[in-house]
Amino acid sequence: MAEVSWPVEQLVVAARDGDVESIAALVSGAHPHVRRFAHSLCVSPEDAEDAAQEALIILYRKIGTLRASGALASWMFRIVRNECLRRSRRLVQRYEPVVDATVWSAEEEVLQRLEADRVAAAIASLPADQRRVLIMRDVLGYRGRAVAHALGLSTAAMKSRLHRARATVHHTLQGTPGTAMGDNDD
Question: pLDDT tens digit string along 105-120?
Fold first, then answer.
C-alpha cells in the first residue's frame, strides 16, 4: 500500500491561518509519522511516546509560526529529535558516576575527550536496534530483563543484540572491521 504524501500543503496553509479543523487534522495525520520517528530515536518506548506527544503539542500550539508550509515535516522531526536527545541526556545525568577528584593534565584531558568521542562515534554508528540495547544496558545500567521488556524482545534476542553491539564497538575501536553477523536472529 503506497503511503499518501504527508502533509498536504493546503491543510498546512489552512492550519497555519488558524483553521481549527485543519489543525486537528494535521495533528492527527502527523501522529503516526512522529511516533514512528520517535521510536527509532529514543532509548525507551516510554520516552518515544513522550517525545511524540511533546512534538504534537508544539505543532498544535505553534503551527501559526511556521513560515514555509513545505517545511512542516522537517520541523516536526527536528522537534522529535531534540526531545529524544533531551530525554536521554536527562537519564545519563541521573546515572553519572561520581567524578574522581584526580587532577588531569591538559594533555590527559584532551586524550580522554578524544577517546570518549571515539566511543560515542562507534556507538552512534551501530544499527538502531543494537544501539538502543547497548545504551540501555551498558550506558544507563538497566538490567537485562528490563531492557528486553522495554524493547519488546525476548531475553535471548536482547543478549544477542547486545553481544553484536559490543563486538562491533570493540572492533571499531580496535580499528578492525566488524564481523558480518546477521541482524535477524530474534
Answer: 777 777 777 777 788 8
In whole angstroms, what separates CA 169 from the centre of its chain?
Answer: 18
Dist. CA 37–CA 91, nearest whole Å: 20
Cα torsion 81, 83, 85, 87: sign = negative
pTM of the model: 0.47
Cell numbers that stand for 21 in this block = 479543523
pLDDT at 92 over 50: yes
- Residue boundaries of the structural domains of the chain: 9-94, 111-174
Which CATH code is given to the segment(s) 9-94?
1.10.1740.10
pLDDT in tens, 42-81: 877 888 898 899 988 888 888 888 777 677 778 888 888 8
Distance (Å, whole) CA 37 – CA 52: 8
Q: Give the sign of the dihedral formed by CA 105, CA 107, CA 113, CA 116.
A: negative
**Using omega within 30 degrees of 0 as the cis cutoff, is the peptide bond preceding 7 cis?**
yes
Residue 78, helix vs strand vs coil: helix
Measuring CA to CA, how many Å separate 153 from each of 29, 78, 145, 158, 175?
A: 29, 28, 9, 6, 31
The CATH topology of domain 111-174 is Arc Repressor Mutant, subunit A (1.10.10)
